[in-house]
Design a protein that fits this description.
The protein is of the alpha+beta class. It has a domain of about 130 residues: Jelly Rolls. β13 and β14 form a beta hairpin. The radius of gyration is 18 Å and the shape is globular.
Amino acid sequence: MAGLYAERLAWRLMVESGDPVVYRVDAAPVPDTADQLPFAVTTIQPGSVGDELFMTRGHRHREPSGEVYVGLGGHGLMVLYDGDETRVVEISPGTVAYTPPGWAHRSVNTGTEPFRFLAVHPGGVGQDHASIAAGGCGARVLRAGDGCRVVPARTGRSSGKRASTAEAGAPGEVHRSPAEARREAGESRRRRRPAGSS
C-alpha cells in the first residue's frame, strides 16, 4: 500500500505507529486457470490515511476480462478507470456490480464498519497491480463530514470535472453514510407533513 495514498507522510506515520491492516483477501482454493472460476471475499477496514479512505490497491486484468462484485456487508464504492473515463459504483449488501474488460478497479470503504464483498472473475486472466500503482485509478475517495467525496486522482482536490457514474459518485459529490441518509430522509418527511398531522 506504500505509495498509493496521496498523503505519503500520513501513511508513513500510520505505519510507524502500528501498521494497521487496511484490507484482507480470503481466496477460495480454486486454481487460477482458464478453465476455473476463482473467487474471493475481500474485507476493507474502516479508516483513512489523512483524508483518503481505506481502499484496496486495485488492479486491472492482464487479459481483458470482466469481474463481478457482490456486496456482503458494510458500505463502499468501486472506482473503475479505463485510462480516460472514471466510473464510481456504490456497493452495499446485496448490490451486484460489474467491471467491464480492460477497466482498472479498486474498492473503498466509505462506512464505519468493515466493508465486505465477493469478487468473481474468469481464471487465468492475471492481475496487474503495477499499472495502478504507477498511473492511479482515476479518482480518490476522501472523507467529507459523515460521508465522502470523489475527486480526480491527479490533484486530490475537487476540480468540477465529472465522471460517469453507475449509481453515484461524480468527483466532488458528497456520499452520505447510511445513518446520515436515513436522518436526512426523516427530516425531509417531517418538513413535508401538513400542519396538524401527527
